[in-house]
Here is the input.
Amino acid sequence: MSSSSRQIEVQFEDPNPCKWDHPLKEDVFSAFMSKDNPTVKKIFGLGSFFSPLLFGKFFDPSDAFPLWEFDSEALLPSPRSIDWFLTDNDYVLRAELHGIIIKSVQISVENGKILDVLGLWNPPMESHKTAEWKNGRWWEHGYVRRLELPEKTDWRNIDARWQNESLLEIRIPKSCDVTKQM
Here is the structure.
């Protein structure tokens, strides 16, 4: 079985500073999920990287989460489709993303502090609004998971890639200061 890998470009400047200002609330999410849309259930359902219930209780995925402060085995039930860990040189995140059109996934870094994994699942009908989907009820058009980057990372050299068309792997190098201390 051969393994294929495809690089994902990481964006470092977001032309839209007004985003994620409409939080996803638990009652709104429940009503959204009750519409019986199979695509919505794949993207936001239990066990999905983009689910607000990923960490066992409701947490708006548009709020940055300090992922690397937790152990994946302690935070997520088994079997899990998401894992994160440290190597000598990198912070690593791996997530199985089934039901996602891989060309729609974007990776960006906000001010060297927040890693965004996002994309569109239901583009707005009016093409001029596509760039603005993050400003309002973003879950009706896209998905996001925002993660706080650990301190002392070389965030400008993040490597993001698809492995076998469904596994997203993101490697965030530790800064030279951190790797020298180890």
In short: The longest strand covers residues 90-96. Residues 26-33 form the longest helix (8 residues). The chain has a mean pLDDT of 87.
